Predict the structure.
Amino acid sequence: MNEAHDNMDSGRHRRRARYSGSHPRRFDQRYKELNAERYPEMQEHIRTKGRTPAGTHVPVLVQEVLGILNPDRGHVVCDCTIGYAGHAIEFLKQIGPSGRLIGFDVDSANLERARHRLMAAGKAFGWEPNISLYRRNYAGVAEILAREGLDGVDILFADVGVSSMQVDDPARGFSYKHPDSPLDMRMDDRIKRSAADLLRTISQAKLSRALWELSDEPDHEQISQCIVEQRQFQPIARTRDLILLIFQAKGITEKQWQKRTERGALHPAARTFQALRILVNDELSALRHLLRMAPTALRSDGRLGIISFHSGEDRLVKKALHEGYHSGIYAATSPHIIQAGAKEVSDNPRSSSARFRWARRA
Ligand SMILES: C[S@@+](CC[C@H](N)C(=O)[O-])C[C@H]1O[C@@H](n2cnc3c(N)ncnc32)[C@H](O)[C@@H]1O
């Protein structure tokens, strides 16, 4: 395996954290879930309950992606968001020992896990996979393909956004579900500005616009005003600080919301957390860049596939693919978005917002 990445941790077994009681509750106590390869039966048990075991990620729309992108023996595949390697392992199986897989991820921990899983998959298939992994932003895809001596790839794939491993880890501060976490949200720890840093300096107008454009938050004006007023007295440094402010801006208490709301309803803080994450990681710029570079990165007849998770991203993808089709760059493109069916959504509720689009290079 060709390793072209930063120095990363080895995949050591995590020691069981001490806890009182018979059931682990905190993320770091879930040592069986966090060691997926050692405890497959535990993973299976949790999956049957429709949950994603901590420290893993369930790939979405796998059959749809494989059916449309059609990886085949000897193909060169570039997976721009390798994550837990869920899609990548499926690609690897199809392209075989004569194929080549280039993978990107900005998160060193995810890249490390993916590397172990890909190597284990190669072993299980009985051949040495030809893989190069990069801890890079996929916006730099053209430069890396040139470095790899490739004039293009057969499949360019991205499953954009965060992985379950990132969202579920309380130390990363991605989720309102972990109310006592640092407000960090960086997928790439080389990024200088965390979400807490951003909330210290961003203007009210810019924040309000971001909440509207990146997550359709209807109370964007009130929330941005509350944040800007509050930060004069106290920094908004932890997830709890932000959650309380959002409730205040919406004029309800957490208790009232819990009483009034049906199970499964969107949490009042969900949209704000999403918009902040997209801002911190500059996710739309990376996606725009990828969409611009895709035609040069694809060989003739090569396929581009993108899974996105909210309407702002999907609009960018749709526009780029349709424009490419009408200008003759792409010979075909998805006539409509492809979404998870009822069975997949019930097995993996996180698939419910996934939207897949594709295009075929002329
Ligand atoms: C939704 S997950 C991908 C999951 C993967 N398809 C799987 O099946 O396991 C997205 C991954 O992309 C990474 N990522 C997000 N934006 C990125 C970017 N601009 N460049 C490189 N990696 C990125 C995240 O760190 C995360 O690990």
User: Anything to note?
Assistant: The chain has 15 helices and eight strands.
